[in-house]
Amino acid sequence: MSTQTFTYTGTFELESGRKLQGIEVGYNTYGTLNKNRDNVVWVCHALTANSDVFDWWKGLFGPEDHFNPDEHFIICANVLGSPYGTVNPLSNNPATGQPYFLAFPEYTIRDIVKAHQLLANHLGIDKIEILLGGSLGGQQALEWSIIEQDRIKNLILIATNANHSPWGIAFNESQRLAISADRTFQAGSIDGGAKGLKAARSIALLSYRNYKTYGITQQEDSDEIPESFKAASYQNYQGQKLVNRFNAYSYWFLSKAMDSHNVGRGRGGVDKALGLVKARTLVIGIKSDVLFPIEEQQYLFRHIPKSAFAELDSFYGHDGFLIETEDLTKVITSFLKTDVKGKIIELQKIA
C-alpha cells in the first residue's frame, strides 16, 4: 500500500503562533467508506512509526485481523515532523530553498491533530467511528476527542496519558542531550546527529522494555563471558536500526511535541479537560509499563465520563501495545459490544 499525500496550500498556524506556508501530510487508507459512512477507523501512530499501520500493527490491523479492509475504512496519517511523507525538518524551507534542520518550528500534539483534522475534512470524514492510538498516538487521539467532541464516537487509548510526566520528559531530555552531544547535529546535513540518535534510541529502549524483559531476552548462556554481552549488542543493533530509517532532527522535534502534551493547558486544568470527552472510551494500561505507568491510564479512566478500563499483563513493558495484539483484540471486541451509558465500567483484566 503506497503512501498518499494531502497538500494544504493555506497558512498553517501552530499553537505557538509560528506559521508554515502550506504543509504536506502523508497518509494511508485501507478499505472503502460504506454507504452509511460509519465504518471509519482512524489510527494515530506513535513516535517513530509511519502511516502504514498494516506493517507495524500486524495482528490487530490486516486483511485477516480485527480491523480489516473488508469491514472498515482505515486511515492512518503521518504526524508533523515525521520523515515518512509529512512536512518535517528535512523538508525544504521556502524562505531559503534548503532543508529546515533546526530552523523547523517547534510544534505540539495539538498541532499534529490540527493537521489531521484538515486531512479528515479533505477526505470528507465527518464522523470517526473509532479513533485509537498508543503512546504518542494515544496523546493525539485524546486531544482530538477534546478538540472535536462530536466527531469521535468511540475512543481507544492505549498506554498513554493526560499530560506527559516529569519522568517521561526526563527520558526525552536525556535523549536530546545525547543527540546534541554529537557535533554533527549542528552541521546542517541530512545525516547530522546520527551517532547521537543511535545513543538516544538506546536510552529510549530502556523505557520501552523493563528489567524483567532484558533479564530474560538478553541473559547470557554462560557465566564465563567477560565482555561482548548480548544486552550491549542489542542496544547497538536497535540504535543503528533507527538511524537507518529515521533522522535526528525529526526525533528531536517529535520528542519535544510529546513533552508538550497536556490536555489541561488553556482548559482550566486536566480534570476539567478530560470531562469534555463525549466519546465512549476504552482505556488500556500495561502493568509492566515503566514509561507510561498504569496509574496514568487509571487516572484517565476515573476522569473520562463514559469510559471502560482494561489492564494487560505483558512481559514486554510499554512495547506490549504493539505486541499483545491477540489480547488487544479480545478487549476491544468486548468493549465495542458493551453498552456504556454515562457510567464508568471496568472490563475483565487480561492476564
UniProtKB/TrEMBL annotation:
<keyword id="KW-0012">Acyltransferase</keyword>
<feature type="binding site">
    <location>
        <position position="201"/>
    </location>
    <ligand>
        <name>substrate</name>
    </ligand>
</feature>
<dbReference type="GO" id="GO:0009092">
    <property type="term" value="P:homoserine metabolic process"/>
</dbReference>
<dbReference type="GO" id="GO:0009086">
    <property type="term" value="P:methionine biosynthetic process"/>
</dbReference>
<keyword id="KW-0028">Amino-acid biosynthesis</keyword>
<dbReference type="InterPro" id="IPR000073">
    <property type="entry name" value="AB_hydrolase_1"/>
</dbReference>
<protein>
    <recommendedName>
        <fullName>Homoserine O-acetyltransferase</fullName>
        <ecNumber>2.3.1.31</ecNumber>
    </recommendedName>
</protein>
<comment type="pathway">
    <text>Amino-acid biosynthesis; L-methionine biosynthesis via de novo pathway; O-acetyl-L-homoserine from L-homoserine: step 1/1.</text>
</comment>
<dbReference type="GO" id="GO:0004414">
    <property type="term" value="F:homoserine O-acetyltransferase activity"/>
</dbReference>
<keyword id="KW-0808">Transferase</keyword>
<dbReference type="InterPro" id="IPR008220">
    <property type="entry name" value="HAT_MetX-like"/>
</dbReference>
<feature type="active site">
    <location>
        <position position="318"/>
    </location>
</feature>
<dbReference type="Pfam" id="PF00561">
    <property type="entry name" value="Abhydrolase_1"/>
</dbReference>
<feature type="active site" description="Nucleophile">
    <location>
        <position position="135"/>
    </location>
</feature>
<dbReference type="GO" id="GO:0005737">
    <property type="term" value="C:cytoplasm"/>
</dbReference>
<comment type="subunit">
    <text>Homodimer.</text>
</comment>
<comment type="function">
    <text>Transfers an acetyl group from acetyl-CoA to L-homoserine, forming acetyl-L-homoserine.</text>
</comment>
<dbReference type="InterPro" id="IPR029058">
    <property type="entry name" value="AB_hydrolase_fold"/>
</dbReference>
<feature type="active site">
    <location>
        <position position="289"/>
    </location>
</feature>
<comment type="similarity">
    <text>Belongs to the AB hydrolase superfamily. MetX family.</text>
</comment>
<feature type="domain" description="AB hydrolase-1">
    <location>
        <begin position="40"/>
        <end position="323"/>
    </location>
</feature>
<keyword id="KW-0486">Methionine biosynthesis</keyword>
<keyword id="KW-0963">Cytoplasm</keyword>
<feature type="binding site">
    <location>
        <position position="319"/>
    </location>
    <ligand>
        <name>substrate</name>
    </ligand>
</feature>
